[in-house]
Amino acid sequence: MSGPSHHPGEAVLIDYAGGALCEGAALVVATHLAFCPCCRDAVADLDAVGGALLEELEPDPLAPGCLDALMARIDRESIGARPPHPAPTATTDPRLPAPLRGYLRGPLERQRWRFLQPGMRGLDLRAGGTASVRLLRLAGGVRVPRHTHDGLELTVVLEGGFSDAFGAFGPGDMAVGDGTIDHSPRSDPEGCLCLAATIGALRLTGPLGRWFNRVLAF
Ligand SMILES: [Zn+2]
């Protein structure tokens, strides 16, 4: 069975299944799941375990008004845990997996792509939570300035691919970067379209760092 070779890892899947990821990070994971039957099965198992644990908990008596407050909180926060279903006006661009379609109107070519560096454009998505979420479009053979992460960077490839010291990443593959990783990815000859969520600041370590930092406005 063919499928992605790079996965989010158990810790990220547990946080996803438990609703602990912010919307932007959950969107990246949900996009990977659209490509990856193995991780879909793992999340289904985690959901089953979580449901069984909830059923075993002894209910505590509720204080007066507690249920109303809880329901109001669930209403407010229900968008955060998992990406919402696409809106009726969502794009139907077949290159985008279903979890992403609710975030765009119209095809990819019609979006307002922002110049980031020669051969690289970005499109910010409005996903709530603490992550900065964007689609990145790289022409063939473009190198992203060397950087590391103070927080967490989750990236999933939609089309084409990129390579760094950790291997080659193709459609559906997910890269998880944190403070221990200093990398400078390079897009494949056919280019790369990917979705990235950055939680916390990127620290740029190469000579282009300051300039790139300003352009990205992290
Ligand atoms: Zn996977």
TrEMBL record:
Residues 111-197 form the ChrR-like cupin domain. InterPro entries: Anti-sigma_ChrR, Anti_sigma_zinc_sf, ChrR-like_cupin_dom, RmlC-like_jellyroll, RmlC_Cupin_sf. It comes from Azospirillum griseum. Signal peptide: none annotated. Gene3D superfamilies: Anti-sigma factor, zinc-finger domain, Jelly Rolls. Residues 79-101 are annotated as: Disordered. This is Anti-sigma factor. NCBIfam families: anti_sig_ChrR.
